[in-house]
Amino acid sequence: MSLVNYEKRGAVGVVTVTNPPVNAMSPGVPKGIVNGVAEANADDDVKAIVLIGAGRGFIAGADIRYFSLPWPEGEENFSDVIKSFEGSAKPVVAAIHGHALGGGLEVAMACHYRVIVPTAQVGQPEVKLGFPPGAGGTQRLPRLAGVKAGLDMIVSGNPVRAPRAAELGIVDKVIDGDLLEGALAFAEEKAASGGPHRLARDLDAKLDDAGIFDAKRQEIKRRARGMRAPYACIECVEAAVELPFDEGIKREREIFEDCVKSDESKALRHVFFAERAAGKIPGIAKDIALRPVKTAGVLGAGTMGGGIAMNFANAGIPVRILEQNQEALDKGMARIEKNYANTVSKGRLSQDDMDKRMGLIEPVLDYAALGDVDMVIEAVFETMDVKKNVFAKLDAVCKPDAILTSNTSYLNVDEIAATVPGRSGNVLGTHFFSPANVMRLLEVVRTENVSDQVLATVMDVGKRMRKLPIVAGVCHGFIGNRMLEGYFGEAALMVEEGAPPQQIDKVMYDFGMAMGPLAVSDLAGLDIGWSKRKDAGGGEAVHERGSFVSNKLCEMGRFGQKTGRGYYIYEQGNRTPVPDPEVAQLAKDAAAHFGLETRDFSDQEILERCMYPLVNIGAQILDEGFALRASDIDLVYINGYAFPVWRGGPMHWAGTVGLKTVYDAVCRYHDELGFAHWKPSPLLKRLADEGKAFEDYDQED
Ligand code: T1G
């Protein structure tokens, strides 16, 4: 089937792009469009041209796969399409439905006119792939929509809906009813008007530069830390204001080409495809029949339980939230209400939507209220006994095909499932990350006996909650927390060997992490690890390597931010970590306790000892089958642990370092330090020996 069709409808030549699933501008599409426009111009009966997309949208932009593949020699591309529109003697009308994104909006803006259905959206998301628009978008959009609106859209990468696009002047008319019919009538009307049919390139009126570029640089400073693309976008729009059109186009091209080659863009393109691969489970058909989930229940109205209940309400799923007593239930409901009210106050949710969502959350005290719900998630106290106890109660009341999941962050979900043997096909883990109503990551923990249908259903519920569901196997800590033990463990070990906490945290902050590991430990609470160590030690937290300072701090009641002191001091009402000389002394006491020689650390050693365990443990998890693919592990770290997205995740990043370099260092640290997390992974060794990256592993069958 041809990628672009041409037909005459009355006096209008219609060029239809047919390249499912999203009409990307893959090789052959530009050629088809150019040919269609030429045919229309060669036909005297044709007075105007309409460009439209078949299927679910207009054009989704360049075919992203081709940034890592050679474009076929001599094959037409965007510039040929744009030249054909701007050289057309007959007016060209873009007819937009679904999406006109990236190069899709760029070719539409090179047409003389644009019409759109109310539900469509247009945008320049290129910055999310690590480069600015590269087919004139940074020069045409400011001319159509004005510099401020154009700059906001290009730097954020966020689309706007049709009504807003019309308001800004990006499109000329919103078509109610059939798009093609509306576009044909519009085209004939424009043709009859006799023109002139203006082109965006000729509109300079809106290029008012109100000095907004430096303000924009200030505005994005925190979010764009470490990135180049957002600033490249600003430079391109500046060129639209400062240079004649054709010179601006040249400047945009130079900056675009430079960015496309960057590690940042390669990482972001890796993440784009990783997110789309994550929903695919080998052996389970994409269209497997799902079990309906129309109602839900949540056990526990604590921070996690409340957040999980909000996720169901946000997905439009009525949910009953159960607590042991009215006081706890009221506290939980008040916290949910406060969370929504915060979002409303920030203008990100209407009061009406908040009320609707609150109306979907029903507080209950009796397990019987969960008797007819389709799915229950427990978010009760994190001990196996309590989990088994609640599952026994669910077993007694829930309907036979109810899906029962645990929100445990590291307990063995197979062991929990074994307590309800008659339901094991319906039991699995759903590990949300705190705050559950905010963090995008959802580890879907695949138990031994869970059915394919239930697994696929829970993945779909995660998507309905606008989460990023990632399949994890049942091992201690699943994917994220298992790897975290290596990262945080090494940070604590280095403190005992003489590395100041503030140096460790600065190295990791400069690498791109939102916070360093010790500041995160203070934020989460040092007492969490301390109570686990006390459990393991029969009530006594034994001083093992890496836990000495934390144990001592907890013994002094210094749990971190919540008590005003942990690895750092926190002044009243201030979350800025201040180095604590008493912690430096504790580190010395630890060294003495373990007979260590303290020393200075290079930033490079700190970076390696924090990051390489993530890679080595990640490879072990892959090798043992507890993650489906390396790119899933990358998504876990980006979306659950604030790993910088522009580095692509720990496994992708390791490929930019070179797996041989990483493997050799892992062997060296294993020789020097021992510790299980340094035991070289056989998979890492194999890939290093074969000169491969984890992407190659993911491509293996
Ligand atoms: N190129 C290649 N494949 C693409 C693609 C693209 N642009 N967009 C989507 N796909 C694949 C995707 O991998 C998936 O594949 C399938 O299509 C369905 O996608 C010159 C240079 C359009 C809003 O950034 O935002 O233009 O997994 O699951 O949820 O300046 O796709 O089925 O095998 O996302 O309905 C700029 C990216 C490119 C838009 C539809 N354009 N795409 O969402 O489907 S750079 C973009 C999207 C550019 C110019 C520059 C979304 C969508 P598979 P999906 P969806």
Quick recap of the structure?
The chain is an alpha/beta fold.
Structure description:
The protein is an alpha/beta fold and 701 residues long. The chain folds into four domains: 4-260, Alpha-Beta Complex (2-enoyl-CoA Hydratase, Chain A, domain 1), CATH 3.90.226; 296-476, NAD(P)-binding Rossmann-like Domain (Rossmann fold, 3-Layer(aba) Sandwich), CATH 3.40.50; 481-594, N-(1-d-carboxylethyl)-l-norvaline Dehydrogenase, domain 2 (Orthogonal Bundle), CATH 1.10.1040.50; 603-700, N-(1-d-carboxylethyl)-l-norvaline Dehydrogenase, domain 2. It is 48% helix and 11% strand. It has an eight-stranded mixed beta sheet, with helices on both faces. Helix 4 crosses helix 5 (147-156), helix 8 (212-220) packs antiparallel against helix 9 and helix 9 packs antiparallel against helix 10 (245-260). The chain binds (2S,3S)-3-hydroxy-2-methylbutanoyl-COA. (2S,3S)-3-hydroxy-2-methylbutanoyl-COA is lined by residues 21-22, 24, 60-65, 78, 99, 101-103, 106, 125-126, 129, 133-135, 137, 273, 276. Residues 21-22, 24, 60-65, 78, 99, 101-103, 106, 125-126, 129, 133-135, 137, 273, 276 line the site of (2S,3S)-3-hydroxy-2-methylbutanoyl-COA.
Task: Specify the CATH architecture of the largest domain.
Answer: Alpha-Beta Complex
Name of the level-1 CATH class of the largest domain = Alpha Beta
Mean pLDDT: 96
The distinct ligands, each listed once, are: (2S,3S)-3-hydroxy-2-methylbutanoyl-COA
Question: How many domains, in number, for the residues?
Answer: 4
CATH topology of the largest domain: 2-enoyl-CoA Hydratase, Chain A, domain 1
Give the overall silhouette.
globular
Largest sheet: 8 strands, mixed
Regions with little confidence, pLDDT below 50 for 5+ residues: none
Name the CATH superfamily classification of the largest domain: 2-enoyl-CoA Hydratase, Chain A, domain 1
The rounded Rg comes to 28 Å
Helix fraction, binned, reads: 40-55%
Counted by DSSP, the helix tally is: 29
- How many strand elements? 19
Strand order of the largest sheet: 12-11-10-13-14-15-16-17
End-to-end CA span? 29 Å
Structural class: alpha/beta
Strand percentage lies at 5-15%
